Amino acid sequence: MNHCRLLRHLPLLLIALFALSACKSGEETTVLPNTAGPGANSNYSGPPPATDDVQNFKRAVWDNLVSNDRCGGCHSTGGQSPMFVHDGDINVAYAAANTVVNLTDPGQSRMVAKVAGGHNCWLSSDQACADTLTRYIAEWSGNSAGAAKKIDLTAPAIKEPGQTKSFPVDPTRFGDTVYLVLRNHCADCHVEGIQTPYFASADLDTAYSAAQSRINLETPGDSRLVQRLGNDFHNCWSDDCAADAQFMADVIAEFAGDLSPTEVNPDFVTSKALSLLQDGLAANAGGRFEDNIIALYEFKSGSGYTAFDTSGVEPALQLNLTGNVEWVQGWGITIGAGYDDDSGARVANGKAQGSTAVSRKLYDSLTGSGEFSIETWIVPANTTQEDARIVTYSGSSTARNVTLSQTQQNYQVLQRSSTTDQNTPFSTADGDQVLQASLQHVVVNFTPGRGREIFVNGESTGDVDPDNAGLLNEWDDSFALVLGNETDSNSLWQGTLRMVAIHNRALTPAQIKTNFEVGVGQKYYLLFNVAELSKIPESYVAFEVSQFDSYSYLFSEPFFISLDDSQTPGSIPVKGMRLGINGKEATVGQSFANLDIVLSDSDYQPGVGQSMSPLGTVIGAENGPEVDEFFLTFDVFGDQSHARTEPAVPTPSTPDPAVPESDLGLKTFDEINASMSVMTGIPKTASGVQQTFNTVRQQLPSVETIKGFLSSQQMAITQMAIQYCNVLVNDTDKRDALFPDVNFTADPTTAFGDASGRNHVIDPLLTQFVGTGLTSQPDEADMRTELDSLMQSLSSCSGTCDAERTATVVKATCAAVLGSAVTLVQ
After folding, report:
1. Which one, of 611, 639, 630, lies nearest residue 159 by Cα?
2. Are 249 and 223 within 8 A, CB to CB?
């Protein structure tokens, strides 16, 4: 379409260019190098930039937008106004650009808003185009250095709470409508044991709970269940996906039908109501240090098969999403083993990978600077996965330039340099357990002076690179950038990525701390109007709110403010603040219920407000961020109050005398570890023992009640017992002291061929680990029978047994006793 427009206006363009050249025949022109983005059609040869700011505009904005496949097809010389990529005079382009940008807040530029709305985006995601354009403008304005910007709070529309429909508690209505369609067409995948969400489960309650976040009661056509059919062509049951989508929308509309909004309790003292996406003010206003970013992934698209590089540094290093990768609401992607949406086959190779050709920009930039930072916000799925690649610039599981990976509760950095082996990890200390299955800000730094450093949540881990800092001159330019796996898909990492940035300079500790404190994800300010309660014009209780994940919201750090700077609160008591959602108070997450403060002139700053609490809380999503309606309730606000009646404390049930409480209990994790250490004589800090305990500690019993015992706890105890017995038998002095009559140089057939030989192992174990003459203990004859049978089985070989198996048999028998109820029960 752009080319057609140019052809149509070609005669006028020629006349204009002729006139322009005639008018400027005596003016100096300068040929500047072509630094434009992909598809640029010419070098600039017009008048030189009049000022340094014009030159900055050319470098940051004009060069990236002048090509015909971006903005040059329309907004160039002789094209449509504004001509901000005028290719005949950079100063004319500069003047035009100033009418459509906001240099104070680049994200609010008119140019950005047009692209975000779908106007001539050069990528498959309008959001990615808008983010990239924002960075171009920020680079021009000088805001890329991360200077914190003030959020301009504006008054939202006034809405009374209780205007949003809610899902009924009883699932019957759902079961008679939407559920029938889901069971008929989705039960091959979306049921327990196959693929989440389980909205086609045979259990109606389970299906109802899973389906709610994918149904829009207010606008059925916007439901995720409908969009997956109509937009993604996912599992359509006929040849017409549009018709299937409309059928699903109609069924949801039937379900929503005459559902009425939940009425708010009239006795509540409430604020006005807000919804997140309609009324929230974007709070992602900068503050990060991003001067030297060359690749940036904020995962804002929310759909599709591409993670866009919005760094603004060309070429854009886009990542293809393959395997089991899901988008997370509020910006992010989750990678992990699961089931393919379409085939139902098991998938264990999820990843986001760039091409080797475009990944070369990392090689060019990082080898040029000789240093870098890899910055991430991540949520590991667990603390047990090993050799799991989080971010890697590599060619295979054994060939890399640099890799950030997880091994249990450690972060590891593998790097090729002139002084390091590419497959020998630099790791955080085992005992520190810095890696947790929670949201963490992780930064890997490398400089020729300090080598590798790891920072977690704004602080250095203190681990010192064992290798001398080297050079990056041995890097390979044919490798690819991959998130969540290796290029060969053999090193899957399971977890969520909320942001990944690669800097071609190492961040300083202060910059890292700043970026950590800014946080991550899509954030908003919600201003709840309380003017009727406070008697102060334009007064609000404001929260910073974000989507914590696809199923919940994070509300944090509330403050009171009036948008009329001439107003102050005087003295207003506020007690018992609670969050409401869709006409009712949230059932969990009421961290502000005990609030008891006074809004006062002494603590209030005009234009800033007064902090009400430093706390945050998470409440569950119901209808989704487009629809969920929030409000606040108060026990006391000024002269209004609600006499809240707390529910009566339930009367404790009378224990059934026929079912007495057990006299036996469980040892907890530290007690188990201490018991095994005393029994075997092996220190708790012994190599291998301490690592095993750190790994399984959270899996061991944490409470003493025997009713809480789980099979997973027995597995952890077994691992502990095996490790203690392994260290014991490998220590010749300790094993000879405990088993003086066992011939460890003989094969097991010889050593344990008769009952006498086996008793040389069984007797010391029962004496040392079990004891004798106790009031309550297992029957010794039964224990001997079981252990004797175990040793005979282990001593039997299909061929010839060697002497090493003798030690193995002793270790196994030792672990059988040490890992039994003897150690666990007290």
Report:
1. 630
2. yes
> Is there a single domain that holds both residue 187 and residue 123?
no
Among the ranges given (151-165, 262-276, 742-756), the one the predictor scored with the smallest mean pLDDT: 151-165
H or E element in which residue 247 lies: helix 241-256
What backbone torsions phi and psi does residue 54 show, to the nearest 5 degrees?
A: -65, -40
Q: Residue 304 is part of a domain; what is its CATH number? A: 2.60.120.200
3-state secondary structure 519-541: CCCCEEEEEEECHHHHCCCCEEE
Beta strand residue intervals within 504-651, DSSP E: 523-529, 539-549, 552-562, 571-581, 584-585, 596-600, 610-611, 616-620, 629-637, 640-641
- Domain housing 550: 523-641
Q: Can you tell me the mean pLDDT for 548-575?
A: 92
Assign 284 a pLDDT band (cuts: 50, 70, 90). Answer: low
Phi-psi region of 549 (alpha: psi -120 to 50; beta: other; left: phi over 0): beta
> Closest Cα to residue 817, out of 773, 775, 761, 748?
761
Number of H-type helices and E-type strands within the chain: 25, 31
- 530 and 508 belong to one structural domain: no
Last residue within a domain, chosen from 472, 494, 518: 518
Both 125 and 222 in a single domain? Answer: no
Q: Is 57 left (phi over 0), alpha (psi -120 to 50) or beta?
A: alpha
Is the omega angle on the peptide bond into residue 315 within 30 degrees of 0, that is, cis?
Answer: yes
Residue 285, pLDDT score: 53
If asked whether residues 504 and 362 sit together in one domain, one would say yes
Q: Say whether both 636 and 730 belong to one domain.
A: no
Bridge partners of 637?
574, 640
Q: Is there a domain that residue 165 lies in?
A: no
Asked if 817 and 787 touch (Cβ cutoff 8 Å), the reply is yes
Instruction: Tell me the pTM.
Output: 0.61
What SS3 state is found at 282?
Answer: strand
CB 181 within 8 A of CB 254: no
